[in-house]
Amino acid sequence: MAQSIEVRLLALADELLIGIIEHVASKSDLCNLALVCSRLQALAEPALYQSILVRKGTEALRLFDAILRRPVRASFIRSLQIRYLYGHKEGIKIMNQGLRKMSKLEALAIEAPCCNDTHAVVEDFESKGEIDYAEYFTFASAMTLESQPRARVPLQTCKPYFTICAILFHL
Questions:
Q1: Alpha-carbon gap, residue 11 to 35, rounded angstroms
Q2: Residue 138 — left, alpha, or beta (φ > 0 → left; ψ -120 to 50 → alpha)?
Q3: Do 73 and 50 meet the contact criterion of CB atoms below 8 Å apart?
């Protein structure tokens, strides 16, 4: 019976499947849906990668690896929160490269290290975080349209490469 339900689900138009996927709240359920077949993967991954929270360097490494394996995933990310604890910073620097790939990022929050981290009371604590946000903003500010010359592109169709609307730092 499960197979007949799956077949009927896949018989639906993409627009209906996207509507269903938009109501799936659990990241785990979205991940499982993406594993069913390549069609559902293509429809579920935009919702799965829309909002990302990175709490550990290992999570940053897994995210970067997922983007390298399928680069379009970076364009799905609209909101990124990087809130790591000092004890879990190993690997977090990969986000310096990862941020450059997220061309449709709208909201970025960086707590480096997390303001609630107990390590902050230790004397040898370094206040500098692992994310080079100044270099990222220099990079994002320098981005321009890559392909067509401006003479052929009407001004109203030009869109900025990066669309960040909100930034939050706790450093």
A1: 17
A2: alpha
A3: no
- What H or E segment, with its residue span, contains residue 109? strand 107-111
Give yes or no for residue 123 having a pLDDT over 70: no
Report which of 89, 91, 98 is spatially closest to residue 133, judged by C-alpha positions: 98
| Residue that wins the pLDDT comparison between 115 and 52 | 52
54 within 8 A of 81, measured Cβ to Cβ: yes
Q: At what angle do helices 14-21 and 38-49 cross, to 10 degrees?
A: 40
Across the range 147-152, mean pLDDT stands at 43
Owner of token pair 């979205």 = 30
Question: Using CA atoms, how far apart are residues 84 and 36, in angstroms rounded to an integer?
Answer: 32
More confident residue, 88 or 21: 21
Opening angle at CA 164, ends 70 and 150, nearest 5 = 85
Mean pLDDT of the chain: 77
State the Cα–Cα distance between residues 80 and 99, nearest whole angstrom: 9
What are the structural domain ranges in the chain?
1-48, 50-170
